[in-house]
Amino acid sequence: MKRAVFLYNAKAGRGRIKGKIGTITRMFSEVGCELQPRPISFNRNPFDGIETIDFVIVAGGDGTLNYVVNEMMSKGLSIPLSVIPTGTANDFAGALGMSPDAIKAARQIIDGVVENIDCGVVEHFDGEVSNKKYFINIFSFGIFTTTSHHTPQQLKQKMGRFAYFMEGLKELRTMHGIPLTITTDDDTFYFPTLMGLVLNGETAGRVPLMRKANLKDGVFDCLFLRKREVFALSAFDMLLYVFGVKTNAVKYVRTSSLMLMTPVSDMTDIDGQKGVKFPMKATCLSGALRFVCPRS
Q1: In terms of DSSP bridges, do strands 257-261 and 280-293 run parallel, antiparallel, or are they unpaired?
Q2: I need a surface site. Which of 9, 90, 176, 220 has the fewest CB within 10 A?
């Protein structure tokens, strides 16, 4: 009999997963899998004592899954992971093709297949490399990208993704650009950046931004939005890009590695969690994770 651990974030998605744990546990028991539900604690490594488990199911959002991946990588483990999306945005689960319905997602896992999926790693360096962090969907910086850090959990539970919009409006008062020198696989260039997005998946906040993105292609899809004197102009530039209109104010690159240098100190975001400081290097680790994906 296979053994699996079901890590769930009881606070994600207004706690709806708690009422479905029994049903999901029985579903796996019926196919010969012993599933042990366990509420996730963000104060300890969830893999302590389960290093030899057959696979792990994570119920939560991108931030919860980010935490699980980082804790697993810190122990040097390569346990197959699967996700039941119960968070606010669930960008990575959407890229995998997981159903937003918890019971249907559990069925997808039961009938699914393990595939190798890319993972990003970001490292701050200042004389020597330190403070390494992994991400599954997006690494970002600049305006609106760290909004999730300031959005209260209670507000997210009440308003969902709209809570991020409300909190993001406050950032307009402190809008500023980042003088950035960017080195990719093929080029080095300067770009005064209002917002930078480095995606492994296709969406950010469920907004489709990277039409060419693939979780198994070994490269990042990156967007850098130029800082304009008036925010409305920068917003219009981004809107043009979303609708497929090319503009010099939006720099798009595909690369397996990035070096980002700037004299300013700005916050960064990794899958909705606090990221590392500048200067930094981001690397795409091709096929570094094993995820249970829907067969379709």
Answers
A1: antiparallel
A2: 176
What is the enclosing helix (H) or strand (E) of 63?
A: helix 62-74
Q: Where are the domains of the chain?
A: 2-111, 119-286
**Before 279, cis peptide (omega within 30)?**
yes
Quote the CA–CA distance of 70 and 285 in Å, as a whole number.
13
**Dihedral angle over CA of 94, 98, 103, 107, nearest 10:** 180
Assigned CATH for 119-286:
2.60.200.40
Distances from the Cα of 80 to the Cαs of 109, 263, 294, in angstroms?
A: 11, 40, 14
Contact (CB, 8 A) for 90 and 61: yes
Residue type, 13: G
Q: What is the pLDDT of residues 132-181, one digit of tens each?
A: 899 999 999 987 665 555 555 565 555 555 555 545 445 545 567 899 99
- Whether the CB-CB separation of 66 and 135 falls below 8 Å is answered with yes
Question: Which residue type is seen at 33?
Answer: C
Other Cβ atoms less than 10 A from the Cβ of 296: the count is: 7
The whole-model pTM stands at 0.87
Reduced to 3 states (helix: H, G, I; strand: E, B; else coil), residue 83 is strand
